[in-house]
Amino acid sequence: MRVFSNATLLCGEEFEVVKGYVAVENGVIKEIGEGRAPYRNVTDAKRGIIFPAFTNAHVHLGDSIARDLAAYEHIGRRVGRRGAKFEVLKKREVSKGIRCSLNEMLNLGTTAFCDFREGGMKGIKQLKSALLKNQDAVMLGRPNGDNIEEVLKNCDGIGISSVADYPPGELKKISSAVKKSGKLLALHAAEVGDDVNEALKLKPDFLVHVTNAGEESLQKIFDSKIPVVLCPRANAMLGVGMPRIKEIFENASVAFGTDNVMVNSLNMFREMEFAFKAARGLSRDYKFDARKILEAATLNGRKILGLKSSAIREGNEANFIILGNRKYLYDPILAIVHRYEASDIRSVVRGVYV
């Protein structure tokens, strides 16, 4: 059994602050307690913060070998169907780049991710060959000319680039096949233009971006109770605008993704801070709560992706980050969102892996 003591723990779904210890046995949280741990052999967290590990709910790992390629080109030239990204995906070292990004994510505290897997069966095999044991991978493939049933047998669902990339009849066939399989269907929506109406017709499990969704389209998303994965740093980097972060948080279940590795870093600390301050600044609302941001970066993504909860609770799998101590902090949640850096991570605990 491993016991981590002398820590500030953010426990349960509400991030209740507990100053004490957490005991892990066989990869499961056995005990959480206040004050001094009643055990001899303990790991001293030295007054650091322990909170659930990150979930990157939308990422494209295939372009990991071309970071910042074509950085000053239009989004279509960068990541469009005939853009620089898809030239990169033809290269043999794609799997090595993916493995590099997976290790980087783990070192940054991300233990679960959802990859929109380009390239049909070839792309699925590339990711599978690079996977790490201590990360939860949700893989959403694309047919890319391959048999849709075969693709679905080998991944967790389908991630559609844009409704504009497929004829309506083909989209219906894809949607029908996914629903029949009981797996996930997700779409990029309103990243550049407002195509929300067309996307909603497919009854997706979640939408990504909604950067340029108009008021009417946003209301339709909210009414349908469809979760949204936001990627505000990538949207900003691509120069396509900013989503209405505060409004979306107030009306939908929200998670964060870092999007294309070619475009954006995998650092969820940066994603949280950028989104938090953008939401406050654009809405002029100084009451917008950092707790919502931390939920979106940790617990919400796992809910949306159908993964088990990573909340720090007795009986749950150990799946958390241990940060070093910083002095004079009044609010540990706010500190994680906008003061802590990746360099403050002391350990990432996942099951029996530390």
3D structure, described in words:
The protein is of the alpha/beta class and 354 residues long. The protein folds into two domains: 2-52 and 310-350, Urease, subunit C, domain 1 (Roll); 54-305, TIM Barrel, CATH 3.20.20. The chain is built from 14 helices and 15 strands. It has a nine-stranded parallel beta sheet, sandwiched between helices. Strands 3-2-1-4-14-15 form a six-stranded mixed beta sheet, with no helix packed on it. Helix 8 links the parallel strand 10 (206-209) and strand 11. Helix 11 runs antiparallel to helix 12. It is globular, with a radius of gyration of 20 Å. The two termini are 12 Å apart. The model has no long low-confidence stretch (mean pLDDT 95).
CATH fold call of the largest domain: TIM Barrel
**Class by SSE composition:** alpha/beta
Radius of gyration from the CA trace? 20 Å
Count of domain modules: 2
User: Main beta sheet: strand number and arrangement?
Assistant: 9 strands, parallel
Number of strands: 15
- The 3D shape can be described as globular
The topology string of helices and strands comes to EEEEEHHHEHEHEHEHEHEHHEEHHHEHE
- Which percent range describes the beta-strand content? 25-35%
User: At CATH's second level, what is the architecture of the largest domain?
Assistant: Alpha-Beta Barrel
CATH first level of the largest domain:
Alpha Beta
Fourth CATH level, the homologous superfamily of the largest domain: Metal-dependent hydrolases
Give the CA-CA distance, first to last residue. Answer: 12 Å
| Order of neighbouring strands in the sheet with most strands | 12-11-10-9-8-7-6-5-13
Percent range for helical residues?
A: 25-40%
Instruction: Please tell me the overall pLDDT.
Output: 95
How many individual helices?
A: 14
Task: Catalogue the unreliable spans.
Answer: none
